[in-house]
Amino acid sequence: MFLRELNTGLDHLKGVRTTADKLHRLALFGIIDLASLLRHYPRDWEDRCIEVPLRNFQVAQVCTVVRILAHDWSWWGSKKILHVFVEDETARATLVCYKGSYLGKELPVGGRFRIWGSFTYKRGEIQAGSFEYEALELGDTRKSNFGAIIPVYPLSDGLSQDLFRRFIRQALDQYAGPLEDEIPGSIIKQEGLLPKAQAIRAIHFPQSMEEKDLARRSLIYEELFYLEVMVGKRALERKREPQPGSPGLSRREAPPLSPLQSRLLERLPFKLTAGQVAAVADINRDISGPYPMARLLQGDVGSGKTLVSFIAALGAVDSGGGQTTGQAAIMAPTELLARQHAENAARLLEPLGVRIAFLTGNVKAAGRNQLLQALAAGEIDIVVGTHALFSRDLCYRNLRLVVIDEQHRFGVTQRQAIMAKGDRPGLLMMSATPIPRTLAFTVFGDLDLSEIRDMPPGRKPIKTHLASISHEARVYDFVRRELAAGCQAYFVYPLIEAADRGSLKDAETMAERLSKQVFPQYPTALIHSRLDEEKKRITMEAFRMGELKILVATSVVEVGVDVPNATCMVIEHAERFGLSALHQLRGRVGRGSDQSYCFLVYSDQLDEAAPGIRPEDLSEAERTRMGQRLMVMKESTDGFLIAEKDLKFRGPGQIAGIEQSGYLSLGLADPVRDAEALARARSDAFAMLEADPGLLLPEHHCVAEVLSRAPPFRDMGM
Ligand code: ADP
Ligand code: MG
To answer: 593 C-alpha to center of ligand 1: Å?
Structure first.
């Protein structure tokens, strides 16, 4: 039996009482059956093999057998506190029990117990305020937590480590023995990995720290192996059946532009950048090639990816084959962005006779039905929209290309749903949050990669300034001069409205303040995710037309919004934003020919790290990291470099674009930290697939799961 097949419910475990409340709490962690229970891996392990007597409390956590000498009670305000005096062979100490005076009965005078905890010297005695204890003789169903390496799990209130350990032990004892290996024996041998049954046991209750490390390594390898099997399978599948028609062009021939593409380029008031030209060539090679396009287009904010996607769409329209024209769907993560694309498409492409439609969840019945009919009849060439583009009732006549903008905002499931609307349509994914190349190749290894490294000419690099919040007035003065010169400005805040702990500025309050006190002469508006779409649209439109001079926003303006006349981006509490978000936000300015500025205003103490974190919880290292993040922003405008830094700071797994890609809902593995293992897993997986391409391995295990766990469409983080 494979681990994934253990869908026995938790209430089948013997010897552990499972209340509905506990089951509910476990379910919040996604733990619903034995398989998910056993895959809830420890976050740490404590070595309780070595006895540490009380006398040595300063050197290590105490782990010893004590005798209870006496009880005493004291009051702390209205609270009764129990003091339990204990001794082992080396010293006496006091266990201070703040909660649960029931401990008086649990730890009777004269009794002998194992105890475990951190002790300190206070008021003339050795004390511990939190500790674990255990009777010397345990019943059959309970195993000692001492004399072993003990796992520590990520858990929340209402679930104790002790209870969870008992769950795990029971599951291991009753079910883990016969677990089968999921990766081929030859690979287990060659990599020196543990068999699955042993790895699962040892990741929870290892015999030694070495065994724990080996178990980790084995499970990590397994995850990466399956990741790469999935990637490889997709790559091979796509290339298995050549498309009917043309034989494809060699890498070097520059593919000709399609008729519509040529007409668009003639009409443009500017020339494509070298990067755009190369990307278009890649795309046209795909379109005329033997396999459907599956390409990731990476390019910094403002590098002109939208135009490239329009050119790709025109290519698809021209490539319909036979008598019908092809269709293209362009999908954006927010309604704001989708609308902007649709308007640009209408402006640029309708004059060529291309029929454009716009579809979002907000398009209502009558208009929608008409639109659906037109799409199905092939009377629409290019449809632009949000995730509404893959609603069930949508049919395309001849969908040839799917473009996904800001692809990291979508999960794999959405991607697949829209791909299923056509007969193997091409896929062009775009991202302004570049993933470092090496990683892109292994994680998105089933995609071809194009990168736009240059910017349209005439752009002046944005000047970035850091300012502490106590100097905000100077920033406002600077912005006032820009406004007086006819430019526009964004102000961005981490919160929509005032939080209880009023120390953070929020968009609502600041919109008031900026419009009434700071810039009373300039029209100002507020935009954030909770406004309805119509209100957002009107506001954006007014800002774009220059009727509004100041836009106060949350990160809702992070993605894609394009207003060339805006030259100032002020981000307050900048330390609260991640690097890639800061880079995206800054990318909202510097889109025209005027010099643009970005001000990163930070709290003096850098002490507001993240919601829910108190300043005193922040380590020095974290403060430094926040400062360094802002320095990176000041020193670089290169999105590719910033992405590399982001990777270093945030640690892997969290990089936008990977995390949400759905490819990587991995448990233990981390493709950046485990880069070496990833490379080996990749070559093992590809070798195996190539030897036997029919292999349908990934139907099960983590791969199927990775797909099913792809994040549901979220209102994109606005
Ligand atoms: P992004 O890559 O961030 O999606 P956009 O597609 O929004 O960038 O393009 C940014 C701006 O640059 C748009 O206003 C677009 O019209 C303009 N643009 C695109 N390509 C060129 C070019 N080759 N020359 C001049 N301007 C361009
Ligand atoms: Mg864009």
So the answer is: 12
Q: Which residues contact 463 (CB under 8 A, 6 or more apart)?
A: 595, 596, 597, 598
pLDDT of residue 16: 67
Minimum-distance ligand to the CA of 458?
1
59 and 120 belong to one structural domain: yes
Is residue 16, in this structure, part of any structural domain at all?
no
Residue range 444-454: mean pLDDT, rounded? 83
Question: Is residue 608 situated within a structural domain?
Answer: yes
pLDDT computed for residue 660 by the predictor: 41
Shared domain for 405 and 504, answered yes or no, is: no
Dihedral sign (CA 333, 339, 340, 344): positive
Q: At a CB cut-off of 8 Å and minimum separation 6, what does 423 contact?
A: 399
502 and 626 co-located in one domain: yes
Q: Which atom of ligand 1 is nearest to the CA of 344?
A: 16
- Are the CB atoms for 7 and 35 separated by under 8 Å? yes
Specify if 642 maps to a domain: no
Output the CA torsion sign for 680, 682, 685, 686.
negative
Among the bound ligands, name the one nearest to the CA of residue 305. Answer: 1
Distance CA 232, CA 686 (A): 6
Domain that holds residue 98: 50-147
Same domain membership, residue 469 and residue 347: no
Instruction: Answer whether 656's CB lies under 8 Å from 406's CB.
Output: no
Q: Ligand 2 center to residue 291 CA distance, Å?
A: 26
HSE-CB of 1 using CA atoms within 13 angstroms:
13
Q: What dihedral do alpha carbons 474, 476, 478, 484 form, nearest 10°?
A: -150
- Ligand 1 centroid, distance to 286 Cα (angstroms): 23
Q: What is the count of structural domains for the chain?
A: 3
Atom of ligand 1 nearest to the CA of 591: 11
pTM of the model: 0.68
Q: Tell whether 507 and 606 lie within a shared domain.
A: yes
Measured over the CA atoms of residue 610, residue 612, residue 615 and residue 620, the dihedral's sign is negative
- Average pLDDT over every residue of 150-170: 86
